[in-house]
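Blackboard transcription, Thursday session:
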Amino acid sequence: MSADAPTGDLAARFGVSPARQRKDRIARTTLLGATILALIPLVLILYYLLKKGLGAWSSSFFTTDPTGNTFFKSSSIGGVKSAILGTIEIVALASAIAVPIGVGVAVWLVEYGKSSWFAHAVRFFVDVLTGVPSILFGLFIYIVLIVGTGSSFAGYKGSFALSLLMLPVVIRSAEVILLLVPAGLRESALALGAPRWKVIFSIVLPTALPGMITGVLLAVARAAGETAPLLFTAASTKATTLNLGEFMNSLPVQIYNDVTSPTTAVVDRAWGAALTLVTLILVLNLLARLVARRSRLA
Amino acid sequence: VEAASIRGDRAVLARSPLARLPDRVLKYGLSVLAALILALIVFFFIRLVGEARPAFAKTGVLGFAFDNDWTPSINHFGALPLLVGTLITSALALIIGVPVAVATAIYATELCPLRLRAPLTVLVELLAAVPSVVYGLWGIFFLAPKLRGAEQWVADRLSLVPFIGGGLVTIPNYFITGLVLAMMILPIVSAISREVMSTVPLDQKEAALGLGATRWEMIRIAVIPYCRPGIVGGAMLGLGRAIGETIAVTILIGDAPRLGSHLFGQGYSLAAVIANEFGEAQGLHRSALFAAGLVLFVLTLLVNGVARGLVVRSTRRTRPSGIATSAGPAPPVADVAVGA
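(Written on the board underneath:)
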């Protein structure tokens, strides 16, 4: 390209008419504008969340349980201790249920089912599970574990509802990662005389581990933010409990309950709890990304 | 001597039945686990139908779906306001959310400087990390009051247009719900679109540019037509999400027992009615809520079924085996990243 031709004339030299150039510029600007538009809500949500949430945070916010006392000044309404502990307990149990089952189904799909009709059916149903609205998982657990047993709400029932929600995410992410394990690794182990189960447990799973951790962390992050499945399974309670057989509070449910309050202090508590929840979820997402970067696959 | 032993009952290298046992246990154990997923969904469906039957028995399925009055206090349950509320808000979410999501995807894959592509993707996916209840909280205390004036202005200007114009804008309303839903479905629609766009063959794009197309003409000629089924599929997945979204909608829609008279008025939705009323529902009321759940279930199944078919078809063209290659992450990764 000769130096005397300014880049602006380049399009003209190749016969691009001014009208087409203008159209191109308008289209590009529109696309850029739409992209910026997409990011505005994120900025606004994070800004407002920080502004309102940090105002609600105090040393006693994390160390006291919420009280039902909503008519007096903010110091007497309590904080989010039981909600934080409840969320951690419920999600931990949900992961303990969903992760082994999910990884097991993914291993079956990749190592045994492959492209049999049954494996296709399982994949289809996992997709169906992905699309089921989360509140329906709550209804399902309600039918089975509360109507079915004639008992009341409990933390572990909330965990079951959340584990149903996590299951498809864990299965799909684990399946993708397991497919990326090089066939050569499996074949060499088999050729050396290792039985199938040993190949799976000592070759395939360890190789896929970092990638699967990423998927699990994303599933946990998603479950931690869910309100709807907990409404009719774990419910909320004011006090901290370590017993998963009792009613249990959680961050999303407490926020949901506080939103409808007419008292400003209680709404402020919801903002504080929301900032806590979003921080928790963002940390999990960040961890997932860091682990994914470490993974040798994908 | 060797030949004799090979001709015996077992080959020299074969494992004893005992040594083969763990393999069988693993294989059948995992198969049972996989079958469990199928059984679970079928069981759920049957139980849901069972619980919903009393409500359907009273008015018939069509009577239930097309009655415009949901008043639990007099045991009258018509699901039309719920069904239409769900459809209005989801349609709004699609109308607002899909163009923005697709534009973001095009910008990220075709126009954006390479160095900005990853951060841009992460930022859009952060929208998926915000929990539903936080969208509701933000929507009702920040967005709805801020936009009320603008909404009233539009309603006044378009006062002759049926359903949109006229009427007094309330803080919880269909439009705000749809707008927040649009933000919530943006990440998944954008992720699927990006995924599909990354499967457009490079030579096709280069051919367009080589023939003298501008960037935009290249996008219009080579990228969009190739991706259309995938983008439609992504939009349908977003629609499924919007239909099933519960908590944010419950906070924002305003719990009206009848169909709202205009876009900026209060309404109700299938998912919201369950979240709102299930706690204290008894007898027929509870059955009617299960019936609403069943309608919701069937609706999301249909939408998601069509969506999956479209997405799979349009991503499979370049990967006939359906197995992820090094060319890019397989479609499910996009789902996972945005918490599908």
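Lecturer's comment: Chain A touches chain B through 99 residues (CB under 8 Å).
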